[in-house]
Write a structure and sequence with these properties.
By secondary structure, this protein is an alpha/beta fold. It is built from ten helices and eleven strands. α3 packs across α4 and α3 runs antiparallel to α8.
Length: about 375
């Protein structure tokens, strides 16, 4: 049994739930066969006997947000079915920031003032939604190329799994990194728990690891958490090298950026440099149990949400610097309410996410808009406008 709650994979049996990993369910639909590139998509097989049907949305799409019978290659549908329960402590930030004017390449070298700072929440393979959000901010042009001059862009991790094109998302971020650097800005990314999961599934496959709750494997955990066969088939050494070199923590303009809303980072170092060095050393040692422990700790969540949340944020800020924590990992609908039932939500209770969620006495900013739950893929300029 894998420690923590795992989303249901195709044909994987009952859902396992604990308080550690409160992730999304993948219903037991049949896997879509992977086709050669350019080949027409195959007809969709009927759902397995007893399997739940996709939850229809208002626009007629099933719960996984693709028209019925029109899934991408190798995509395992994921139910997007968690409701929002409105609470009075929510601060929603307007998303109508003017686009960043383009700047000619090379004009911000040397000691010039850095461009505006942007952060991106969890993408989880939703490449089209990412491109739309980046275009709305003026960060890329109509063809998906860098258009923001000296702007600085940070992705908060979780590029793959659950969505249709995780490798396409990684390819885009890698390309934008080169284009932004040529224009005098930059595009960088942090390590998410799903990067650790994909690295582990590729490196260790079915090697048993000590999960603390019995024997587990990275391969099983990856499948149960929305791993896509099409991503694994397209995964190349350049992607593995890029992911394994990502930092876990950074401080930018008095913002402490990290993926997970947990204090587990403190177990890996008391400075930003120490944490990043320790994570890289663990990945380089290539020990399955050690990598599993790192993955497990980076899946923890909700450290900033309830009583004592502000104190937890302050502990991180005191160690690493910054005035506010900005994180992904826990979708805003999770932070605002309860997880949906096994039967799915009421028809009118779908996620409503307009912008980042500010909480923990104003010290924490949540950036995962719940794109896997039909929420919003958030791209936000920092600092937030008041």
């Amino acid at each position: 049994m894998v420690e923590g709650s795992m989303t249901q994979g195709a044909g994987q049996g009952p859902v396992v739930r604990t308080a550690t990993l409160r992730d999304f369910r993948v219903p037991p639909y049949a896997q879509v066969p992977v086709q050669e590139h350019g080949a027409p998509p195959p007809p969709q097989p009927p759902a397995a006997s007893g399997a739940p049907e996709p939850v229809a949305t208002e626009d007629g799409h099933p719960g996984n947000a693709f028209p019925e019978g029109d899934y991408p290659e190798g995509y395992t549908p994921t139910e997007r079915d968690l409701p929002v329960i409105n609470r009075g402590d929510t601060v929603q930030v307007p998303m109508t920031v003017p686009p960043v004017p383009a700047t000619a390449p090379g004009t911000a070298s040397g000691g010039h003032t850095p461009g505006p700072l942007y952060v991106v929440g969890d993408v989880h393979g939703y490449l089209d939604e990412l491109l739309v959000s980046l275009r709305e901010r003026g960060l890329v042009d109509a063809d998906g190329h860098w258009a923001a001059g000296t702007a600085r862009l940070w992705f908060l991790g979780d590029f793959t799994d659950r969505g249709p094109d995780g490798i396409g998302v990684i390819d885009l971020v890698m390309r934008l990194s080169a284009e932004a650097a040529a224009a005098g800005g930059y595009c960088k990314a942090l390590m998410g728990n799903h990067e650790l999961l994909l690295l582990g599934a590729k490196r260790f496959a079915d090697t048993p690891v000590n999960s603390g709750a019995g024997t587990a494997t990275f391969q099983a955990a990856w499948l149960l958490n929305g791993g896509q066969k099409s991503d694994m088939d397209r995964l190349q050494d350049v992607h593995l090298q890029w992911m394994s070199r990502l930092d876990a923590v950074t401080v930018q303009d008095d913002h402490l950026l990290l993926h997970s809303d947990t204090t587990a980072y403190l177990e890996y170092g008391q400075t930003v440099e120490d944490v990043n060095d320790t994570v890289h050393e663990i990945l380089n040692r290539n020990d399955a149990d050690e990598c599993w422990d790192l993955f497990r700790k980076f899946t923890k969540r909700f450290a900033f949400r309830d009583e004592g949340g502000a104190a937890a944020v302050r502990e991180l800020l005191e160690a690493y610097g910054g005035q506010r924590v900005v994180h992904g990992h826990s979708p805003i609908p999770y932070l605002l309410g309860e997880v949906g039932t096994e039967d799915g939500p009421d028809e009118d209770s779908g996620p409503v996410v307009d912008g980042p969620h500010v909480y923990a006495e104003g010290l924490a900013i949540a950036m995962d808009g719940g794109v896997t739950m039909a929420g919003k893929l958030l791209v936000q300029e920092l600092p937030l406008a008041h």
